[in-house]
């Protein structure tokens, strides 16, 4: 190694962008950090290096094969980030095992199947907007909880057939796992909880299968058949990623439009598109700030820095989208007219997010419908008063308080 001191990450994630900038200033595209529990790790903060490592067989996502501290039990289920290496699914697999675990899920998210969901998503958005319209005029409402979260949570739970009465419990693990400040007791309890909840869901679908994705996975045959642990891990990542990340994408896009009226006007008069809004938001405000965990399969020699074999690596997507080597001096500016909106917020290579088409479709439907229904919507607080999500893993706010103002109803001749 080069002898540098690790940068101690703020487990409460109070200012993830300032932290990302400090890591980038180390100048090598990857920075040594101190993870919770005094665990040494690395964060990739440069775009080009991220592309290289995301596609490299020298980096693995399988802790059971390539993380000595996990294999030996030195790090266990009471580690604050233990849910990530605990789950057995495509996101913690390597090589052929990854392809085996990914295949049955990807079949459900083909572009054709996602496009067919458009009418259903449009109906869901209308229902949520109707509910928001019941708010007392002038009353503050948390748009993140009541719209940005409800939309993807409803869609993903409907897809996987999660009963209405069980949804809060099933999604709870996906909400807790990104919290980088969990205590050892909370970390262990969280793992027990989400394993129990998904175990119950699997048992119910095995006993009474219906036409949903959970039943398809539970009753798959041949090469697509998964063990119970793999089923639990697969459902955990699908429902968690399918709700938490889309929630932050929609919330950030709404906030940017409310605080950039000039650019909002460009979208409304056709000088820019909703796709411009979505892609620039994904670039500047990656829903995931730092994604755990990858592991060096061998010593990695990277631009004067050596990452020892077995060390954990996080992808710093929040920093990667703001890399000045790719986006210049304005890398930290939200500009929907930017010609190069390249980002890696859905990953790259074999682990590219299988839910990316669905996430984009949800945002593409939700955003114009929201602003058409409530054109006078405004923030209820100053932007600087918004609290962070409280973790270095996610990039978001605890809430998005707004005041809703509906479009006037056209007068009728009489």
UniProtKB/TrEMBL annotation:
<comment type="similarity">
    <text>Belongs to the cytochrome P450 family.</text>
</comment>
<keyword id="KW-0349">Heme</keyword>
<dbReference type="GO" id="GO:0016705">
    <property type="term" value="F:oxidoreductase activity, acting on paired donors, with incorporation or reduction of molecular oxygen"/>
</dbReference>
<keyword id="KW-0408">Iron</keyword>
<dbReference type="GO" id="GO:0020037">
    <property type="term" value="F:heme binding"/>
</dbReference>
<keyword id="KW-0560">Oxidoreductase</keyword>
<keyword id="KW-0503">Monooxygenase</keyword>
<keyword id="KW-0479">Metal-binding</keyword>
<dbReference type="Pfam" id="PF00067">
    <property type="entry name" value="p450"/>
</dbReference>
<dbReference type="GO" id="GO:0004497">
    <property type="term" value="F:monooxygenase activity"/>
</dbReference>
<dbReference type="InterPro" id="IPR002397">
    <property type="entry name" value="Cyt_P450_B"/>
</dbReference>
<comment type="function">
    <text>Involved in the coupling of aromatic side chains of the heptapeptide of vancomycin.</text>
</comment>
<protein>
    <submittedName>
        <fullName>Cytochrome P450</fullName>
    </submittedName>
</protein>
<comment type="pathway">
    <text>Antibiotic biosynthesis; vancomycin biosynthesis.</text>
</comment>
<dbReference type="InterPro" id="IPR036396">
    <property type="entry name" value="Cyt_P450_sf"/>
</dbReference>
<dbReference type="InterPro" id="IPR001128">
    <property type="entry name" value="Cyt_P450"/>
</dbReference>
<dbReference type="InterPro" id="IPR017972">
    <property type="entry name" value="Cyt_P450_CS"/>
</dbReference>
<dbReference type="GO" id="GO:0005506">
    <property type="term" value="F:iron ion binding"/>
</dbReference>
């Amino acid at each position: 190694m080069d002898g540098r001191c690790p940068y101690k990450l703020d487990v409460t994630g109070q200012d993830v962008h300032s932290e990302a900038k400090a890591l980038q200033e180390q100048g090598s595209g990857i920075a040594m950090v101190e993870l919770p529990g005094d665990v040494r790790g690395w964060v990739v903060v440069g775009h080009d290096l991220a592309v290289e490592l995301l596609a490299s067989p020298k980096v693995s996502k399988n802790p059971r094969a390539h993380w000595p501290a996990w294999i030996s039990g030195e790090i266990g289920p009471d580690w604050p980030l233990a849910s990530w290496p605990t789950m057995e699914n495509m996101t913690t697999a390597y090589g052929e095992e990854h392809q085996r675990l990914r295949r049955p899920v990807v079949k459900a998210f083909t572009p054709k199947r996602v496009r067919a969901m458009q009418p259903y998503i449009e109906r869901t958005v209308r229902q949520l907007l109707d509910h928001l319209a019941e708010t007392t005029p002038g009353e503050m409402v948390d748009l993140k909880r009541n719209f940005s979260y409800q939309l993807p949570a409803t869609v993903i739970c409907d897809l996987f057939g999660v009963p209405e009465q069980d949804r809060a419990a099933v999604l709870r693990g996906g909400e807790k796992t990104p919290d980088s400040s969990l205590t050892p007791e909370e970390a262990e309890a969280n793992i027990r909880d989400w394993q129990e909840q998904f175990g119950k869901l699997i048992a119910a679908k095995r006993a009474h299968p219906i036409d949903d994705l959970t039943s398809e996975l539970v009753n798959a045959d041949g090469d697509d058949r998964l063990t119970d642990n793999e089923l639990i891990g697969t459902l955990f990542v699908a429902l968690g990623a399918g709700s938490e990340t889309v929630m932050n994408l929609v919330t950030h896009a709404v906030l940017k439009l409310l605080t950039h009226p000039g650019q909002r006007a460009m979208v409304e008069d056709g000088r820019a598109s909703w796709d411009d809004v979505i892609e620039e938001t994904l670039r500047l405000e990656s829903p995931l700030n730092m994604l755990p965990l990858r592991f060096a399969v061998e010593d990695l020699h990277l631009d004067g820095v050596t990452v020892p074999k077995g060390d954990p690596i996080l992808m710093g997507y929040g920093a990667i989208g703001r890399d000045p080597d790719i986006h210049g001096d304005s890398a930290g500016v939200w500009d929907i007219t930017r010609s190069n909106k390249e980002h890696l917020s859905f990953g790259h290579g074999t682990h590219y997010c299988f839910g990316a088409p669905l996430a984009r479709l949800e945002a593409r439907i939700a955003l114009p419908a929201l602003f058409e229904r409530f054109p006078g919507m405004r923030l209820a607080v100053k932007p600087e008063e918004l609290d962070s999500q409280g973790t270095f893993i996610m990039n978001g706010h605890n809430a998005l308080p707004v005041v809703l103002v509906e479009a006037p109803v056209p007068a009728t001749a009489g």
